[in-house]
């Protein structure tokens, strides 16, 4: 599977086909028996989560996993761990993308709504200045207006052109609207791949349902 900078690579498939396991393996959180993870032509040899983060891979997990007892600011600061000391500050762009985090900067992560937590989880990943952003079902359990905002943010990140975004998503229309390249998995393997210019909605829908 290849994910190009400046676009969304969507990974789809029914429940339990291995989408989360794939993202966890790429981000150093899950062992894998075969294959190689490469970033910008450099192979990573079964990296730790820290090693993968240093190599530019950021993972936004399904269920968000914000630290509930830590404030929004403290949650964001955990992203500093893989950056040199002189980059230990939250860029203004983070608050431009997610104004609500600025308003809630001293609130505990656990006191935010699900949608706000999702925004915090994405912001925390962006702090690490990733070359590859892995998003695992960012719309799960989120209300429509926040889903729209998250879609807007993903588009802005794509337009910047320097980050490859890999989106695992069950919300078909969200993935179809944002994606440029589509992979469908079944039983732990990629079984279908097409780019948007040669793919119809109906064809993808049929593949995802198999
Ligand atoms: N390549 C693989 N080889 C063997 N087992 C796998 C592989 N990929 C995933 N699994 C196993 O299949 C199960 C489901 O995997 P996973 O949670 O990654 O699927 P998913 O597609 O993300 O599901 P969901 O849509 O429900 O989140 C897990 O028990 C996982 O360990």
From TrEMBL:
- Which UniProt keywords are listed? Amino-acid transport, ATP-binding, Nucleotide-binding, Transport
What does the record give under GO molecular function? ATP binding; ATP hydrolysis activity; branched-chain amino acid transmembrane transporter activity
Q: What's the superkingdom here?
A: Bacteria
**The keyword Nucleotide-binding is annotated on this UniProt entry:** yes
The UniProt record lists the ABC transporter domain at 1-210
SMART domains cross-referenced by the UniProt entry:
AAA
**A matching Pfam family:** ABC_tran
Q: What InterPro entries does the database record attribute to this sequence?
A: AAA+_ATPase, ABC_transporter-like_ATP-bd, ABC_transptr_urea_ATP-bd_UrtE, BCAA_Transport_ATP-bd_LivF, P-loop_NTPase
Put simply, this protein is called: Urea transport system ATP-binding protein
Organism of origin is: Sulfitobacter noctilucicola
